[in-house]
## 1
Amino acid sequence: MIRVLDFLESLRATLWPRAARRFEAAAFLLPALLLVGVLVLGLAWMADASLRLLDTETFELSEHWTLANYRDLLENDTAWIVLGRSVLGAAVVTAVTLALAFPYAWVMVRTGSAWLRKLLLVSLFLPFFIGQVVRAYGWLIVLGKEGLVNQLLGALGMGPFKMIYTYGSVLFGLVQYMLPFAVLLIAPAVTAIDEEVELASETLGAPWWRTFLEVTLPLARPGLVAAAMVVFTLALTDYAMPVILGGGTNDFVANMVYDAFFRTSDSGMGSAVAIALVAAATLLAGVLLTWLGAGTLGFRGEAKR
Amino acid sequence: MKAADAPLPVDAAAAMVEVRGVGKSFGGVPAVDQVSFTVAKGRFLTILGPSGSGKTTLLRMIAGFIEPGEGELFIHGRPVSAVPPHRRSIGMVFQRLALFPHLTAAQNVAYPLRMRGFAAGEIPGRVEAMLKVVQLGGLGARRIHELSGGQQQRVAIARALVYQPDLVLLDEPLAALDRKLREEMQLEFRRIQQELGVTTINVTHDQREALVMSDEVLVMDRGRVQQLASPDAAYRAPANVFVAGFIGVTNFLEAVALEGGRVRLAGRECGCGAGPAPLPAAGTVLDCALRAEHVRIAPAGTAADEAPLDVQLAGVVRQVAFEGDRTLYEVGVADLGNAVLRVIDRSPEAHLGLRPGAVVRIGWRARDLIPFPR
Ligand SMILES: Nc1ncnc2c1ncn2[C@@H]1O[C@H](COP(=O)(O)OP(=O)(O)OP(=O)(O)O)[C@@H](O)[C@H]1O
Ligand SMILES: [Mg+2]
């Protein structure tokens, strides 16, 4: 037995010399690097396609490069409206989601009742099993013209109200979809806060709401920043909610990309919109990170004592 | 609520803190049971007890984090059960310090001043002065994680004292430090406490800390007060077997009460000291406490000790533990029914060394044998 191990060890030493050891950690990054590589390739392809104009006769992309797609896009009022709607929507969804997720995460972490904690965890994960599309259709049933809510209101002699196919319903659906992500990102940050620090703040003269603002919130910042990044980018680039709950009246950028690719078969224009979306999302995420400070993601562990 | 009617030992008008018949149960099991005491202004009281004796629970009731199940608390003569923690004039130093990691040392110290509505203009001056008191002048701009353990301790103390609270509570803040630093900080805190004259309640399970730092020691066990006394009295005149055993290294010997203030110990008659109660009727079984440092030890056959010993017996050394400034022996004594006595020797001859197996003479003075009726 020992012999075999010795042999394996010497084999390893020949095949994987000591000098290669320091690359071991890097080797674990390989799959991730591959994935990113594929993504970059796809982006490069799209960048290339976005620079070619569709020939409406042959439905082929032009041989030469041109900025025509981008020029059209800049002059297209609808495109600007869709972009504005997406960014504004993502911002509102992020703000509302964080405002709802933080108390949820806080109670889930801090409650003394194991029963309540389990209930909150289960209700958090349950929607995950259902999936975004099914959930969106669920809201159609609940909020539709003949939906549950309108039936109830009707029984009370009110309504019917138009609740779906509006901007509000898209944002509502997005918030509901993002909430679990946000809670799961914030909860560890709240767990990392020593409860005694909050008690200390109280003995030092702070009522609960000042403790919350001055201690809990700043200490939970890494989780909040992470949640904000994830929710904002997911909402900005979302496709399903605007389609299903917006019903074509409240398109986001991703819907425009889809339409260009699969309705008008203009992969050049579709690519241009997609590249513009990537650029906008990267820019906004960059601004958000600089503003909040990348260090606040907690990678440097400075909150530890 | 019977204890509420009991007479109080200290003038209530001078009491900064009064705890009257306070109790708290968790799931039907009492964690703190009928505790009453007062702390006069400017005094330093230490609550001493083994793990799980209810010290933290008691402290948290005083701080306002836990509501007492029964009884009432008074701070500055006012009942405080309806007062939330942030409205009580209390500074607390937590076991894990609970400093704000996102703030600098100075911002930590400034925090209570901001929360308590001090004028913005006077805050920096007060912070600066307080940091000087705890000898952290010039380190105010450091983040908490840039300070050493001892320096963090000082920040926590400064933060709890800076707004001159009526009362400071310490929940074993020194327990995590290494021994040398802990002993330094004990003296340091005592210096600051006396300098500022702030009333303090400290919690610890370290008897040495309790004796070193306090004006008064409150010994607790299983939620009940065992004794409230000066460190000196808690050490010299323990109120019961628990206190006698908890403070110091103590031997317990079974004895029977005789007439005339004497006892019978393993068949021989001898004198004894004063216990907390007069000696009971002859024939009653007693537990006698005998502190290890009150037992003298000498090699067999050497000249008699200079101090007149009332009881002298032969014994055999079983174990020797050299502790630097003292040596702890375990000695088997045939005349005490083969009981093993722990003996602490601080005399220089200790270093000559008695090995296990050595035949020795041990002895003690009658007044050091403290009888407790069973
Ligand atoms: N929140 C709680 N729920 C249930 N039981 C509790 C709670 N807090 C304390 N207890 C129990 O009350 C008793 C006293 O606990 P407490 O923390 O006051 O002890 P302590 O003297 O501070 O001990 P230590 O020196 O270990 O800190 C223990 O038996 C403990 O298990
Ligand atoms: Mg405790």
## 2
Amino acid sequence: MPPGDLAAPEVIIVGGGPVGLTLALDLGRKGHRVVVLNRFDFIAAGSKAICFAKRSLDIMDRLGIGQRMIEKGVIWNLGKVFHSDAEDPLFQFDMLPVKDQKNPGFINIQQYYVEEYLVDALADYSNVDLRWGHEVVGLQHHDDSAAVTVRCAQGEYSITAPWVIAGDGSKSPMRQMLGLDFEGRVFEDNFLIADVKFTEDRPSERWFWFDPPFNGAGSALLHKQPDDVWRLDFQLGWDIDRDAAILPENVEPYVRGMIGDDVEFEEEWYSVYTFQCRRMRNFVHGRVIFIGDAAHLVSPFGARGCNGGIADADNLAWKLDLILNGDAAPNLIASYDYEAIVTADENILNSTRSTDFMTPKSTMSHVFRDAVLELAKDHQFARPFVNSGRLSTPVSYPQSPLTTPDADPWGGGVMPGSPALDAALGDGWLIDQLGDEFVLMTNGGGITCEGVRVLDLAEHENAAAVIERYGLTDGGAYLFRPDQYVAARWHSPSLDEVQRAFQTAKGARSGSIN
Amino acid sequence: MAQSIEPQAIDTSARINRPDDMYQMLIDAHAGLDDHGSMKLNAKLVLILANHIGDMDILAQAIDLARTSAPYSSNRQQDVS
């Protein structure tokens, strides 16, 4: 028998990276029987994701590890963009334009810490079986389930579940077992990541350079991580010797050029990467569902890889929960395909545009890039064109089959299909009050709907900020999904309207799964 | 709230009352620049003017106009030197 026998899991998650583990924790907290199959028997170190965006922190907060991440992480909200050899930045941007929210705009923390915190949190859930060193080597698809063949130290075994989730990374063996591929662009460029350790009192900011004197080949990026580790990233160009590029004697001049000759530093990890902006055509294939890098890849500029994957887990968990509990039909999963693809496309679009701005592909795109950078120094109007990475922000789904469009006129607030905007409430925060179930947030009015928890702001102290941010009049209401997205809103809803929006958000209008 | 507004049509009537002066001003702006410098100047001009116009519909029409009035499409470029 495989270790940690868990009879008849409801969900098998293939892959124990941050995305698979996030989904496992979300489902575990909801009481589902989950098996996670991780082909490694350790948490891999190395230069992986470091930037975790506010939306991911809100999600991790809901799952109980957000504050641990923030305590360990380096909080930053400010990005600075430099050009050429000028010492002063061209301009700076703030990643948390709306202040007074529970979580910061961004933190930097090594991916392996996040994985460790997820694994620690999972230890509280005996209904989640995390199997290390279990590699999936086969996949059989049935009508209402899928089975995987697993190889581990004790031999091979087969395990079946109604839903099998492929979170097995960019090279996804699961994807290959289904004979599926990516569509999209591969970029012909190489980037050097030098994660180095040094102690220096620099501000916690994202610094990005266009054409700095220390890198003739293009752009460079500096980011602070916990434990005095810094991420230095240098564009190298296409035609290079990748093995030679990571030799310490070849890395050092880049590091010295950026941080100076007088700073003592030591190597943590050197690597060269290329990237792609691509995705699968569909993420849902019968009972096999793809999440994270297995489903989509982006360039790293914009922190949209891991954050995009966490968004997948967040989107999928509550849908699987409703289906497994019999509270929604299996076709609710079609809305994951729709919404996760909208998210992936926005992430791919933004990261492709950033990459094209940073590494112009034609003479004219180079000319326009330089024109923008030169104008941006003195002219505010040109700064919004400067694209050093459009950093990850949550994606909205106004056209989703789960979203009920506005029938009332609204001048502001939060649009249906958008995630909750946090604000102070009582002596805490709105996102704490929303939790992870359907919530009808009302401003008086006394409406109730079976299956939906009511959060009446009229009964809360210190609700003015929420009422203002949501543009709520007396008797107005917002319906939130379990992932804290707005499903619908009204100035003065009838019970019938709320019930219809609730059914819609549970997939009543969702298409069929392929 | 979402009142649909008819997109404004780009004005292609002759609006510059001293066309020769304006034309000369454009040519003079490129004096002493090499090809790369000239391209960059033109790019800056486009960006400055685009921002001044500030209307994506108008800009899209302008781009369309500029492309369709070209004598040769890009894949049929001929040597005219």
